[in-house]
């Protein structure tokens, strides 16, 4: 499905990951996101002038999304939009976040892959088209074992009562030397018919994740 040509190496504080070079970054970093979003909106409006009247709404929405993503621990968000001859582009994204979890009493939750797997609920589809979740552990070369959940999920829209159905893969990688913290590599797409292909893409991208000094 994807046109894999050259890989683009992304480096952030403490990690690196590779994505296809046709992907683009939705910048969530406070020091650069405002200018990056303005440039992105300007580029889209230049390509489609009929969107000019919505420039301020687009900009405000994207800034809010970037701020919320950063506050939740996101450090990188890569996006794809590929056209394969149809009316609607095939879209997907991969986000890398550094997150920690505690109980209500403040105790650190375990980050060992087996412990995370035990906490993740498996859900079987009762009929075709239903949501489902599979849980397993995977081995990432050069990193080690990690917990993974993948399937088709209904995700709540922030600030709204609606939900959207997405292809979702989440891989929880323990951060060396930091108790209670994991690197969460999450891939998602709303193109449900291509779920298996996206699982392969997200797995391939996640397999390139490495911690750096």
Write a concise synopsis of the structure shown.
Helices cover 24% and strands 37% of the residues. It is an alpha+beta fold.
- Alpha-beta content class: alpha+beta
**What would CATH call the architecture?**
3-Layer(aba) Sandwich
The main pleated sheet reads as: 7 strands, antiparallel
Q: What is the distance, rounded to the nearest whole angstrom, between the alpha carbons of the first and last residues?
A: 34 Å
Describe this structure in words.
With 213 residues, the protein is α+β, with helices and mostly antiparallel strands. The chain has one domain (7-211): Protein Transport Mog1p, Chain A (3-Layer(aba) Sandwich). The chain is built from four helices and ten strands, in the order E-E-E-H-H-E-E-H-E-E-E-E-H-E. A seven-stranded antiparallel β-sheet has the order 3-4-5-9-8-7-6. A three-stranded antiparallel β-sheet has the order 1-2-10, with no helix packed on it. A hairpin with a 6-residue loop joins strand 7 (144-156) and strand 8 (163-174). Helix 1 (33-47) runs antiparallel to helix 2. The chain is globular, with a radius of gyration of 18 Å. The relative contact order is 0.16.
């Amino acid at each position: 499905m994807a046109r894999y040509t050259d890989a683009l190496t992304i480096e952030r504080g403490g990690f690196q990951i590779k994505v296809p070079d046709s992907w683009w970054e939705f910048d969530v970093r406070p020091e650069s996101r405002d200018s990056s979003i303005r440039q992105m909106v300007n580029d889209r409006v230049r390509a489609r002038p009929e969107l000019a009247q919505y420039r301020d709404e687009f900009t405000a929405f994207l800034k809010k999304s970037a701020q919320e993503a950063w506050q939740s621990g996101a450090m990188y968000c890569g996006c794809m939009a590929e056209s394969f001859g149809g009316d609607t582009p095939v879209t997907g994204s991969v986000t890398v976040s550094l997150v920690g979890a505690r109980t209500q009493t403040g105790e650190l939750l375990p980050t060992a892959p087996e412990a995370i797997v035990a906490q993740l609920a498996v859900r079987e589809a009762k009929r075709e088209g239903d949501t489902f979740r599979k849980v397993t552990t995977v081995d990432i070369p050069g990193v080690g074992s990690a917990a993974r959940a993948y399937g088709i999920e209904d995700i709540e829209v922030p600030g709204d009562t609606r939900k959207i159905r997405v292809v979702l893969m989440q891989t929880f990688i323990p951060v060396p030397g930091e108790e209670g913290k994991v690197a969460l590599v999450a891939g998602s797409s709303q193109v449900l018919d291509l779920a298996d292909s996206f699982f392969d893409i997200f797995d391939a991208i996640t397999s390139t994740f490495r911690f750096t000094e």
